[in-house]
Design brief:
Oligomer: heterotetramer
Largest interface: A-D, 49 and 44 residues
Pfam family, one (chains B, D): Acyl-CoA_dh_1
CATH topology of the largest domain in chain A: Butyryl-CoA Dehydrogenase, subunit A, domain 3
Distance between the termini of chain A: 62 Å
Family (chains B, D): Belongs to the acyl-CoA dehydrogenase family.
Protein name (chains B, D): Acyl-CoA/acyl-ACP dehydrogenase
Low-confidence stretches of chain A: none
Strand content of chain A: 5-15%
Cofactor (chains B, D): FAD
Distance between the termini of chain B: 39 Å
Strand order of the largest sheet of chain A: 1-4-5-8
Keywords (chains B, D): FAD, Flavoprotein, Oxidoreductase
Radius of gyration of chain A: 22 Å
Helix content of chain B: 40-55%
Mean pLDDT of chain A: 93
Number of helices of chain B: 11
Radius of gyration of chain B: 21 Å
Number of strands of chain A: 8
CATH class of the largest domain in chain B: Mainly Alpha
Strand content of chain B: 5-15%
């Protein structure tokens, strides 16, 4: 048995032992569309993971991680998903905030923030998007003004699509700190506690009825002087680097969950006779094909290939999985036929219904399809950039 | 040539104005959020004041005796505004079924009541997603001393909670299908279902040895296949028109949004990719609308079998179109597209639910292929 | 029997009697992709039609036509196609040039040119497109200079996509007559004989091997003073009006030929077993549906409905039929399976192969798909116009 | 992780450079316009000088013993340039079939010759468009005193006129399938066919009582289903790679054109709708390329049945992609797109012809579905 296979077995065993008892309720929960489900129990689960040493396993050992190889990280993600491990409340901290602090934070910041992430006790959310800066990230309007007395930053503005803000402790905020600056210039990257008087969090009810996203309003809220990451003006650079950390290994875990959804669809089709429909069969086979292709694409993206072709094709990954998943949702409903419309006490059906609805967000958040295609055309193919208008 | 008469044009314009005002986003949400059976006020206006239910009912039974085109005009517009009323059930399913298969007494009584706007009626189809849902009923009717006893369950009946009357196809002991009319609270158990598409409520129907009188049997000597097919074609045509309308509604909502929304210093309507996608929806709307109105013009004139094929084709185009228009509405709304607050999700949920009704895309195409290849279909 | 039905019978009978003998060879020939097939015999057929009074039947009687109603014209087109009437060599003269002269020509021009069109003895082609003004009609570069001595116009430049130029007698040319004018201004509409020394015609070989299009080079060629239509500067207006005549009734005849192609596909599928494929069956049924829808769309377009909606949907007709036809070509080949690739002496297969290849031009000539979608979005939906660049 | 080794990267870069120079548009057109059997000079370079045919042949038979990945790299690149050489026939069909089913003597002789670049070989498959074309042969082999007599016709054999050797699957009297190897001019009649896709010549093969010796029978005791499936998977994988390459080639041609072509005062590459369509092709190329190379990596390692499913999936993606890339090439070239002079039509004709080979899209998906549903397929 190779090292990775042994490790895989270790994860599988740990999950089999720990995702039981009161945590059994969490199996396959808290995924897309119900990221706000069972929050307290899922926070407890984060502490359970931490106790097992399974939070931040990809971080270097010096920062409290396990220093897993890429292959091991993939194995962890896959086994976690296969076992039905719930959606990770700590994802933003572990996947984005931690790596950003490790790369750009001061020693003092690392000392203050990494332990809470590692121990599953402090939860983070992200403050990027704004109502008029959805895809247009350079159009950020939230202001940060220096308080000359304290050196703190006073923040006013609105962030949207902040996932799990209402269940988080901290938010990182990209704000405009130089009066009159435009685009990528003059931005600052701030760490802010959410429990302060001048922050208001309004959940956004979604298509499926859940509310994992929020609008967060800042009305003179405060970021401490020592909670700036990098220098004022570095906001763009740090934000881009942070987004870079997001891509990657967790996609293999996501694919495991896609495979489970496809398996469910096949199972239901066999039960309700949809498997006798030639068109449904062809669509299932096509979905299977797309998932296989995605798996290999992910493995290529995670490889060291730095050719222009590999970089261009890596740009397609988000478009690929989100559209595949969106189409899977429709397939699931077509397989369910009339039952698709009825909410019943059937966890399989409910999972597919939620997936169907929330997968509509997949092609929008994290860069819409349209933005992805612009990026592929412009960065991948070197085609002319879309001109900016003057409205 | 295929165009509206001035009267039809007038009906269309007035209905459009009326529905824009009365079936607003807020009005729809009141029904959806409350899980209500329908918008009672809107229904009262439509059925009693405006007399829409009388359009296609023969004059002999108190209707206006107009054709399929007028109904299709109204169905398209109710679809565009996702009007939460049992109009399709009453006019496109029930009234046509009564007309095609009902006894004279039943026609006089029920078509009269429908035409007068006094009655919402639905049909308890056996399997709503089947291409031929009349034949699949699991309700059994056993002859008794003074009538029949009905037993069985129907999993999903559209507009059941809103209906004053439900028509139940039931299988007799000799295998033939009869139609029974049950008014409110005459022994049936109605259980409203929690559905994804709240704009078109659905309930289950349970009949546990419900005794009915012979007068409640309303068919004229059994439901013939021809009558069932004729009723079904009309129901499908109305549904296709509604789906077409919903697609237009979703596009309208989207056009309004992209004209306002600014990104990168431009309205997003100025991005060519978005323009082309909206234009492609116009192409598909033109295609579907032509077939819907062409089929409506043919219905009754043309050979019934050929007409039914056109209706199947219209369902295919309209189902594809409705879903795509709704998914484009979500996509082109960007972040707000998948929120509860904006309307695209209402159109989207309706699209999926409608596509599943009365035969899948595949089933309708199979039917057309069986005719084109003249081989009765693949076995 | 209604008047139209009686008329239909008349056409059918005439075709049955006349499209025989030496003309039988022409049945179903000379359509898209082989517009240059059997030219001499087809010119003779034009004279046969003329002798029967079937050229220009939609023209008013005063101009030598039959003054047919729209319904009768449709019936004529349908019966002509149903009988296998060959592609019309006289189409440009009858459908475009004649109506334009009737609307804008002088009495003298009408007297000179209409008889040749009516009698099937003079053939016309069109000089619109240019290498750098394909979709961008306003970018016409062909120059017309006034010869002050004779009042004639001396034309230099190049036209492309001139169908059947090598088999035609006359060409109408849109050229720039005002030095320094741009866009729609300063254009002139000229009638020019092709057999003159400073005109060269180069056939363009097409995807299917035929060459019905040409490049036409003018190197100081001459248009007589009396062969200007309208005034110098009116070129745009007249050209647009001419294009307006093109839309319409002939589409119903075209649909009849589409129906024949679909029938052929069904016939071959039944013979070679493709009719056992569920996917092929679904595609055939879908094609049937699209053709029905197109038929009704054409009837709506030809109606008097002038509502915004009707006008918007009329804009979709070209996109609709061309894409439908293009897809039909692929379906035909998929039904033929391996035989699709082999050119054999089978007129049915050959017809479908040519259709498959040439239908690729359908979505390009007469306004590409992309231009059609721009027009629908801009004119039909009032969306913002594409900005013009400055290259 | 899935990436090229440095050696593979080097093979790829050199082959790409070589083919760009040697399989230019002019070179292709020389073959197509003359109706020639292949580009003999290019084939000589590839087979003899560059040794591409030796890549996947075991070292024991004079090859380099490399894996499927190297072959797939070369197939992708020959596809991109529509190279008119019998490379796929020789390496992906014939050599693999000999390796899977051939006797030791046949392997030594023919694999050796192929590896040395001395022989172009093809296989006379019964029905080229069938998903399982090995089993459909109509050639019959009757035992004679000193060998066999072969009789039958094969409608279409790829690269037959270019091949030095054709392998003919034939049915024996006991129903088993044997393989016979016929060198040039040994009694068979070859009739080159006029084809739409002139970049991949096809001829028919006629065997009118052709006597062959027992040594010409090259299988080791009959063609087993496992051997046939293994050979077929390799042929399909090579074809998928070639199709992928052709899609990339069509996109490359298109990108070059839209970057130059000016309309409305802008390069047409600056129109967003065109950008998005090119980007969508990149997405689909990334998807197909991943599955092609993933399947290649799995071939031999993974369970053979699962590997064959991946190959079927790769064919589906590559066939869809190749056709769409080619049709977009024509469309985005505008008027010149459907002329003989520009290259899109070459890619387009190749796309349709390739999609028809070795199983339709539907047949490959059916095979996958039969496995996913574990029900052996719909009957």
């Amino acid at each position: 048995m190779s090292g990775v296979e042994a490790f895989r077995t270790e994860v599988r065993d740990w999950m089999a032992i720990h995702l039981t008892g009161k945590f059994a309720e969490l199996k396959f929960r808290g995924g897309s569309g119900e990221g706000d489900a069972l929050p307290e129990l899922r926070k407890e689960w984060e502490r359970e993971l931490a106790a097992g040493g399974w939070t931040c396993p990809g971080w270097a050992k010096e920062h409290g991680g396990r220093g897993l190889s890429v292959a091991e990280q993939i194995a962890f993600q896959e086994e976690y998903s296969r076992a039905g491990g719930p959606g990770r409340m700590g994802h933003i901290g572990e996947g984005l905030m931690g790596p950003t602090l490790i790369a750009f934070g001061t020693e003092e910041q690392k000392k203050r923030f990494l332990p809470g992430i590692l121990s599953g006790t402090e939860f983070w959310c992200q403050g990027y998007s704004e109502p008029s800066a959805g895809s247009d990230f350079g159009n950020i309007k939230t202001r940060a003004k220096l308080d000359p007395v304290t050196g703190d930053w006073i923040v006013s503005g609105q962030k949207v699509w902040t996932s799990l803000a209402h269940l988080s402790d901290w938010i990182f905020v990209v704000a405009r700190c130089e009066e009159g600056s435009i685009g990528r210039n003059g931005l600052i990257f701030l760490l802010m506690p959410l429990s302060q008087p001048d922050v208001e969090i309004h959940p956004i009810k979604q298509i499926g009825g859940g509310a994992e996203f929020n609008s967060v309003f800042f009305d003179g809220a405060r970021a401490k002087a020592e909670d700036v990451v990098g220098q004022p003006g570095d906001g763009w650079k740090i934000a881009m680097a942070l987004l870079g950390f997001e891509r990657g290994i967790s996609t293999l875990g996501q694919q495991m969950s896609f495979q489970q959804e496809l398996d469910l669809i096949v199972e239901i089709a066999r039960e309700n006779g949809s498997d006798r429909s030639p068109a449904i069969r062809q669509r299932v086979a096509y979905a299977w094909t797309g998932l296989r292709a995605m798996r290999y694409l992910a493995m290529r993206v995670l490889s060291d290939d730095q050719s222009a072709e590999a970089r261009r094709e890596a740009l397609t990954y988000k478009y690929q999985w989100s559209n595949w998943h969106r189409d899977l949702g429709r397939l699931a409903m077509d397989v369910l036929k009339m039952d698709a419309n009825v909410v019943a006490d059937d966890p399989r059906r409910e999972r597919l219904q939620q997936m169907f609805l929330f997968a509509r967000a997949d092609t929008i958040y994290g860069g819409t399809n349209e933005i992805q295609l612009n990026i592929i055309a412009e960065q991948g193919l070197g085609m002319p950039k879309e001109p900016r208008g003057k409205l | 040539m295929l165009e509206f008469t001035p009267d039809q044009q007038m009906i269309r314009e007035e209905a459009q104005r009326f529905l824009r005002e009365q079936s607003s986003s807020e009005a729809i949400r009141r029904v959806v959020d409350a899980g209500a059976s329908h918008d009672a006020g809107l229904w009262a206006s439509i059925s009693r004041e405006l007399g829409w239910c009388a359009m296609a009912i023969p004059e002999a039974f108190g209707g206006l005796g107009l054709g399929a085109t007028e109904v299709v005009i109204l169905m398209e517009l109710t679809g565009a505004r996702l009007a939460c009323v049992p109009f399709w059930s009453t006019v496109c399913m029930a009234a046509r079924l009564i007309e095609a298969a009902g006894s004279e007494a039943a026609k006089t009584k029920y078509l009269g009541a429908i035409a007068a706007g006094e009655m919402a009626v639905t049909v308890a189809l056996g399997d709503l997603s089947a291409a031929n849902p009349m034949s699949g009923t699991s309700v059994r009717a056993v002859k008794s001393a003074d009538g029949y006893v009905l037993t069985g369950k129907v999993a999903q009946v559209i507009d059941l909670a809103a209906a004053d009357l439900v028509i139940v196809p039931a299988q007799l002991e000799d295998g033939a299908t009869a139609l029974f009319a049950l008014e409110r609270d005459t022994g049936q158990v109605i259980l409203p279902l929690k559905v994804i598409d709240g704009t078109r409520p659905v309930a289950s129907l349970e009949l546990a040895s419900v005794a009915v009188s012979t007068t409640q049997r309303i068919d004229a000597g059994g439901l013939t296949d021809a009558a069932a097919q004729s009723a079904l074609a009309f129901a499908n045509l109305g549904l296709a028109a509604e789906q077409l309308g919903a697609a237009q509604g979703a596009l309208d909502v989207t056009l309004a949004y992209v004209a306002e929304r600014v990104q990168f210093g431009r309205t997003i309507a100025s991005f060519q990719a978005i323009k082309h996608r909206c234009a492609e929806l116009v192409v598909d709307i033109a295609e579907a609308r032509s077939l819907v109105f062409g089929a409506a013009a043919g219905l009754g004139g043309m050979d019934a079998a050929e007409s039914a094929l056109e209706v199947s084709g219209a369902r295919v185009l309209a189902s594809d179109l409705q879903f795509r228009a709704a998914e484009e509405a979500i996509q082109l709304h960007g972040g707000v597209g998948f929120t509860w607050e904006y309307d695209p999700h209402l159109y989207f949920k309706r699209a999926q639910a409608s596509a599943a009704l009365l035969g899948s895309r595949e089933a309708h195409l199979d039917r057309i292929a069986a005719s084109v290849f003249a081989d009765g279909g693949l076995k």
